[in-house]
Design goal:
The complex is a heterodimer of chains A (177) and B (100). Chain A is built from 7 helices and no strands. With 177 residues, chain A is an all-alpha fold. In chain A, helix 1 packs antiparallel against helix 2 and helix 2 runs antiparallel to helix 3. Chain B contains 3 helices and no strands. The chains are: A mainly alpha (177), B mainly alpha (100).
Chain lengths: 177, 100
């Protein structure tokens, strides 16, 4: 990946990530999040993780974000009006985040950081190499994942459904008033 | 190839923005989006180190993180819908039932 591309993508990712937390309309936050995910996906592809990059676009930016979009529509959320939170909270949050970023920088990326650089084997990041790893070394984890997804599907349906016999509290409140 | 330091810095910055979002915003949905942002920052670090070590393990871990994120999003949004149905709010400060 050429350096100018990294700078462009990095700046785009940071700006759109900031967009997620400063937008007042949840839909705009979501669009900024999708932009961030797309940018990170391109960074993945630039780091020779081609399959994971495309999975990121299809699964994350496609499926999961559409789920968020449906929920925002379903709840009919409007733009937040009035002050959002206290100024002290914002100051504290920004300060904490800045300190955390500095700390992470010194732990994860000290200037003298040296990872033993190995040349990527042929076919690195291809579907065949990912599947080869997934279905040999990580087979048990892969199978457990299917149980996790099943539990999540059943659990979310059970959480979100309306129990028979119980009235919708919103409808009850409307008729009472 | 881009130096590892740069990729890790980008990952750290995105992670910190996600933490700031969880602290500052009071809308549950936006807090949830900030969590996704943090997960993505970690994924970026995994991919960057994996490609420099020439190992596929990082990419497999990212694959699993995506799966867990999908499950988490499904359950979390189910909880949010359930909260909204009962309390008609998505504002975290209004949910004080378990506060002492």
């Amino acid at each position: 990946m050429p350096p100018f591309l990294y700078i462009f993508l990095g700046a785009l990712a940071i700006v759109s990530a900031l967009g997620v937390i400063v937008q007042r309309n949840p839909i705009h936050s979501l669009l900024a999040l999708i932009a961030t995910l797309m940018t990170v996906a391109v960074l993945f592809i630039g780091e020779d993780a081609v399959v994971v990059g495309f999975l990121q676009i299809i699964v994350y930016a496609g499926a999961i974000m559409v789920l968020f979009l449906f929920v925002i529509w379903l709840l009919n959320l409007q733009v937040e009006t009035g002050p959002t939170g206290h100024l002290a909270l914002k100051l504290f949050g920004s300060l904490t985040a800045a300190l955390l970023a500095t700390e992470l920088f010194f732990i994860l990326a000290p200037p003298h950081l040296q990872v033993k650089f190995t040349h990527e084997p042929v076919g690195y990041g291809s579907l065949a190499s990912l599947a080869g790893k997934l279905f040999t070394d990580y087979l048990v984890a892969f199978e457990v994942t299917s149980v996790l997804l099943l539990a999540a599907v059943v659990g979310s349906v059970a959480l979100a459904r309306r129990l028979p016999g119980t009235d919708d509290p919103r409808a009850a409140r409307k008729t009472a008033s | 190839m881009i130096p590892l330091t740069y990729m890790m810095s980008l990952s750290a910055i995105i992670f910190a923005i996600g933490v700031a979002g969880v602290i500052i915003r009071r809308n549950i949905l936006v807090m949830f989006m900030s969590i996704e942002l943090m997960l993505n920052a970690v994924n970026l670090a995994f991919i960057a180190i994996g490609s420099r070590l020439g190992s596929m393990d990082g990419q497999v871990i990212v694959f699993f993180v995506m799966t867990v994120a999908a499950a988490e999003a499904a359950v979390g949004l189910g909880i949010i819908i359930s909260i909204f149905r009962n309390r008609e709010t998505v504002h975290a400060d209004d949910l004080t039932l378990m506060r002492w």
